[in-house]
């Protein structure tokens, strides 16, 4: 593992798209659609700062969100019929206790308050839910909400109230919002005013058309954009967010700036959403193709991208195992435009990482195709100008 600190300008000079890299990205994503998580294998907690450990007992935990009020991290299984699962950062072991929030092991909590979203929406059945990106909203002294992008016909965002405190955490379904035609959802962010922001990855993700858009986006071609939904106007495109395979999405701590991972162009877009036609900021350069986004407590951005360590993805084709693909965790400071690689990994402990969430002294890392969650013990103060300090 190693660290680097780079400016956005130096990233732009160093990152060059080549046909071989793009082909590897395409093969990697195609492989991830059919790969199976490994069965068994030992997990252990990290002992020293800078060490990567793992938490067993999960299935394709593609995205993670933390609810401070519930003392719980929530993830969802990236698979048809996937469940929504919670665990607590204060109750950790190599095989931590988990709670199945949806569908419930016991009777589900009833709906609280008026339904949200589209009037014709219904709660997802256990067989139909296909979770992808997650979004969260915690209002001081108010309710906590979870948003889940689910693939289907059409894709939809399901909205839940998060109730209770660990270990008595539960979900109450509140409604859903269906994506517009020719839109494939990826990630979601909730605004305190009731609006919803989401990434439209491409018009389609299935069949030959899905392969076409995957190839187009991998070569930097525009395939989608960020969308905004509210109860009065429905869905609208967010100006200045058109991108190549738009992926993760997040709002700044003050909810004034929207960040969108422009995956195929190796950058993060930043748009002012405090007004109807807010100005676009200069994009933030990223080493690699950014996936999910999250915020640190002091407003920095965390993302994950694949590196060239671990298995060569083309050699894994036709094998009944997960490709041990390497990855890196990157932190960016929107104020200074500085980028730092916190650490890189070869995929041996956790493969196909997709996002990272900081809780206390631990960084939790999700995966689109593994049976565990990564846990990295940080060193230093996350509020320092260079995080973590050398």
Please give a structural write-up.
With 390 residues, the chain is mainly β. It is built from three helices and 26 strands. A hairpin with a 4-residue loop joins strand 22 (325-333) and strand 23 (338-345). Helix 2 (19-32) runs antiparallel to helix 3 (207-218). The longest helix has 14 residues, at 19-32.
Write the layout of secondary structure elements.
Layout: E1 4-7, H1 8-14, H2 19-32, E2 52-56, E3 61-67, E4 72-77, E5 84-87, E6 99-102, E7 116-117, E8 131-138, E9 144-150, E10 156-163, E11 170-178, E12 185-190, E13 196-200, H3 207-218, E14 225-230, E15 234-237, E16 246-251, E17 257-262, E18 267-272, E19 280-285, E20 293-295, E21 301-310, E22 325-333, E23 338-345, E24 353-359, E25 362-367, E26 372-377
Helix pairs in contact: 2-3
